[in-house]
């Protein structure tokens, strides 16, 4: 099997010619833009993984529509950083890990690599467990059986890499559509107060310390470290750019795709909160686990709603697990110039999930701990991305403007503060008590 870390460079002659025609202005229209779509769609899966399900369900069940604005905020931060990551790859022809290796001190590079690998494994743990939980609930099997099925399906999907990046992009795009359609169906079934939902989407409010804790979790589950590494690798040398005019056009296509793909991911997350608020907030506000949500949905909204919920969870777990493996390959290749067979990396990253289930650890607790690990790792790629995209010696005329740089730094600062709160809470130090 070819290396996923390099598969993004694989283009058919037909695709290359079609992209060149678009860049030269000989081909126009919506179909032309679709030729450049793919990287942001793949990255957007990170924003709809099983970790999001847990935090969004807890937010909706516990606080109704009140925390929808947090999802909106987190998604705007994600859009900014995914756009910066895509731009880095398009302008430099290198991914974030490669630039870090070439421009930063060796001890820092080694530390970044270790932290990033741990983050990739923590991400994969959550994604793999999510898919397995969905399968076990849907088919009534044991969690271990669900994990075995998830492993087989994931390996099958990774085989799409043999045909280059396009088949993988199309399949992942299909799974994104499945998740989106599932939550559209949920919203049609659930009794939604749309006026209240829209109001809270633009009205910041934190009723108590518990709401702040959940808000921190939402941000931590939304902005993902591996997606920042992956996006820059998927865009590097992807389009046949021959001059700066064409490069700017590719950037324009990329920015539009980021906005659309992340907007869809944001709407899915908002739909998760709305569904949980509509179904659980009155009478079942203590629902905070995926399995509990499934069992509670059946008597409240019917078996169809519960089944659709699980289908979306399975699609999320399987697709995000595949994307996590792709990101892990890219991180390893970029930082240490070492590549391992995809099947071996998949086996290594699956191992922690099997150990967690085998020793009887609560899967929900394991999901929470994986988010803590991610919160530690997240500032690493964010700071590196802000640093590199602001350097004119690396980006040239494409270096971030003062406004964009300031917004990015503000985003990092907010995430850092929220992560400190999350880590303190995990350690039993209640910083949120200062609210009241």
Category from helices, strands and their pairing: mainly alpha
Distance between the terminal alpha carbons, to the nearest Å? 56 Å
Shape verdict: globular
Specify the biggest β-sheet.
none
SS element count, helices: 21
Strand content: under 5%
What's a quick, concise take on this entry?
This protein is mostly helical and 436 residues long. 77% of the residues lie in helices and 0% in strands.
Structural description of this entry:
The chain is an all-alpha fold. The radius of gyration is 21 Å and the shape is globular. It is built from 21 helices and no strands. The longest helix is centred in the middle third of the chain and has 37 residues, at 244-280. Helix content is 77%, strand content 0%.
List the helices and strands and how they pair.
Blueprint: H1 4-7, H2 13-23, H3 30-34, H4 39-44, H5 50-63, H6 68-92, H7 96-103, H8 106-139, H9 143-158, H10 165-189, H11 194-201, H12 209-222, H13 225-235, H14 244-280, H15 290-301, H16 303-336, H17 342-358, H18 363-377, H19 379-389, H20 392-395, H21 402-426
Helix pairs in contact: 5-12, 5-14, 6-12, 6-13, 6-14, 6-19, 7-16, 8-9, 8-16, 8-17, 8-18, 9-16, 9-17, 10-14, 10-16, 12-21, 13-16, 13-19, 15-16, 16-17, 18-21, 19-21
């Amino acid at each position: 099997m070819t290396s996923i870390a390099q598969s993004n460079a694989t283009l058919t002659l037909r695709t290359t010619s079609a992209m060149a025609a678009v860049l030269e202005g000989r081909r126009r229209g919506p179909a032309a833009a679709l030729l450049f779509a793919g990287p942001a769609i793949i990255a957007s899966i990170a924003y709809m993984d099983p970790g999001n399900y847990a935090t969004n369900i807890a937010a909706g069940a516990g606080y109704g529509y009140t925390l929808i604005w947090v999802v909106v905020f987190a998604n705007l931060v994600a859009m900014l950083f995914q756009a910066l990551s895509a731009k880095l790859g398009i302008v430099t022809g290198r991914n974030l890990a490669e630039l870090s290796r070439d421009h930063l001190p060796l001890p820092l590079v080694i530390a970044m690599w270790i932290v990033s690998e741990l983050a990739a494994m923590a991400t994969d743990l959550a994604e793999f467990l999510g898919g397995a939980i969905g399968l076990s609930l849907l088919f009534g099997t044991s969690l271990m059986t669900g994990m075995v099925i998830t492993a087989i399906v994931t390996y099958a999907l990774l085989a799409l890499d043999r045909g280059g990046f396009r088949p993988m992009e199309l399949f992942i795009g299909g799974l994104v559509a499945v998740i989106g359609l599932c939550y559209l169906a949920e919203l049609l079934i659930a009794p939604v107060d749309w006026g209240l939902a829209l109001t809270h989407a633009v009205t910041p409010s934190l009723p108590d310390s518990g709401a702040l804790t959940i808000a921190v979790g939402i941000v931590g589950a939304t902005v993902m470290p591996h997606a920042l590494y992956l996006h820059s690798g998927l865009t590097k040398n992807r389009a046949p750019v021959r001059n700066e005019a064409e490069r700017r056009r590719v950037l324009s296509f990329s920015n539009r795709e980021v906005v659309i793909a992340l907007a869809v991911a944001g709407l899915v997350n908002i739909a998760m909160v709305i569904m949980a608020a509509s179904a659980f907030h009155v009478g079942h506000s203590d629902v905070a686990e995926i399995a509990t949500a499934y069992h509670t949905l059946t008597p409240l909204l019917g078996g169809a709603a519960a089944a659709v919920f699980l289908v979306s969870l399975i699609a999320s777990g399987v697709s995000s697990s595949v994307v996590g493996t792709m990101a892990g390959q890219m991180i390893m290749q970029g930082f240490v110039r070492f590549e391992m067979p995809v099947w071996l990396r998949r086996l290594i990253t699956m191992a922690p999930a099997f150990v967690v289930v085998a020793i009887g650890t609560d899967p929900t607790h394991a999901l929470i701990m994986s988010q803590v690990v991610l919160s530690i790792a997240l500032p690493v790629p964010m700071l590196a991305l802000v640093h590199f995209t602001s350097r004119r010696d690396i980006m040239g005329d494409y270096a971030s403007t003062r406004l964009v740089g300031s917004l990015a730094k503000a985003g990092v600062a907010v995430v850092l503060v929220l992560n400190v709160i999350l880590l303190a809470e995990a350690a039993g130090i209640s910083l949120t008590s200062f609210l009241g």
